[in-house]
Write a structure and sequence with these properties.
26 helices, 5-stranded mixed sheet, single chain
Amino acid sequence: MSDPQIEEIKERLNIVDVVQDYLPLKKSGVNFKARCPFHEEKTASFYVTPSRQIWHCFGCSLGGDVIEFVKQIESMDFPQALELLAERAGVQLQRRVFAPTEGPDKKQILFELNDLAAKYYHKVLLESKAAQEAREYLSKRKFLDSTIAEWKIGYSPDKWSVLYDFLKKKGYKDSDMESAGLVVKKKDGKVFDRFRDRIMFPIADLSGRAVGFSARILHPREDVGKYINSAESEVYSKSKILFGLFQARNDVRKSNAAVIVEGNVDVVKSHQAGIKNVAGSSGTALTESQLRLLSRFTKNLLFAFDADAAGSDASRRALELAISQGFNVKQVSFEEGVKDPDEAIDRDPDIWRTAIASAEPFLDFYFKKLFDILDLTDATAKKQSVASFLTLLSRVSDPIVQSHYIKMLSEKIQVREEVILGLLKQHRLKQAGYEEKRISRVKANPKEILEQRFIGLLFSLQERMKWYVEHHEVEHFQTPKYREIFQVLKDQLRSTGDIKQEEFINKFSQVKVAVEVARFAIGEEQEKEQIGPEMTLISKRLLKSFYERQTEELSGKIRHAEEKKDLESVRKYSLEYNQVIQKKQEAEN
């Protein structure tokens, strides 16, 4: 893709407008900020700076231009993100030409395979005699033809290798079909279709690409599950995707609420009934990744899981996680005799609409559930119920809401508010420990931050820039984008003997965005007199980190040579080790 086209797309789009389609941005001086969508955090550290048309998160260290943002948020590769933004910008892209040495993208092959499989299964459902019972089943379940077409619902014949044979004729490899989760390979080398005699519901990612399937058995058997999903792959992870969210996303934004149900049929029938802000958890409790996905569109969730024991457990687990991520949560309840949304819609879609409209705040729902039938003379049951409720309440940050329910609980179980408040504090401390451990897993890589800081400060030191470029090497950097920047700087210095910052940035567009992000990351408030001393310190730390990697590598070589009794290599590596130690000491002084 030609650079002028990329620049034209970026010039036509304001990064603030694009990001605001995914996140609620708030003005912060000349910038905009939000809570980062790429890692869990309580305080906003994600910034968008319009003057530079870049974004950066100070919490996880991710950053870049508008294309990089769409890549990350939509889980796309570069060409896909570019196409999406080109359409938005009204730019007609030239056909991309790949170099002869460039191999096909593995993910793209998996997308193609799943898309082709979805079309094949859909065609079988519509036209094959073998799918007659499947068509009758869907008609009995009140699926309209337009719904079947819109969702590309299909049928996998009760045969061992019809899809495999079809894809094989199209030229696809067995290994790719297996990676896509469409076929299973036995130890003896035989390959057979994963899905047989099943109603096929294609699963789409947020870009509308088929990534897998959820498949319902047509003729139930004891030895197989009612529903099975595609195997995990490079493009499909059950814990990171919600069935129907692609189709629901615009209505979720418009209504500022998402209704979460369990089954695929619940989702499809809801959309068919005109209730389109509905997505499915595929029968499992929501995960952190799925909730982060939902947070791009709304912070208001309505749970409508099946009204049985399993549904209640799933609802409870999802509630706790959603509350900890700052969602406003309500619980949908059905009238007597109605099990789920599908059943409600079959009786009358208004039953489902009424249930959604009358959804209760989650704490009210669980308070009634736990205490309306509680035997207050049973001390053990009372203790367990209180602990269960306080586990939920401890995740609520609003002290007024907490005070309201503490008073209700005190009156209900006849225990002083001070006692309940003490128990709540214990639960909050326990929860805080969990949150700290969970959030610590997503902290930025210290080495990457160090290298980013070096580059940011380097471009703030016009008079000393050449000196630092001469005294550092490319291998001092581990992060690919900063290695590339430094390599370009080194090459420029060798060819011209000097570096002029603005000319460099404009000439080498491939590193421009990373440089701008690094400069933004050091902060606009950085005083000029502070830059020199900090750069000296950062430079030493960068060298120290490099020498530590070298000594670690040489230590491994020495141990390996000693095990092989290779004394010559031991002497060689030991000498190199001592030399590196000396360099490290010199760098620290």
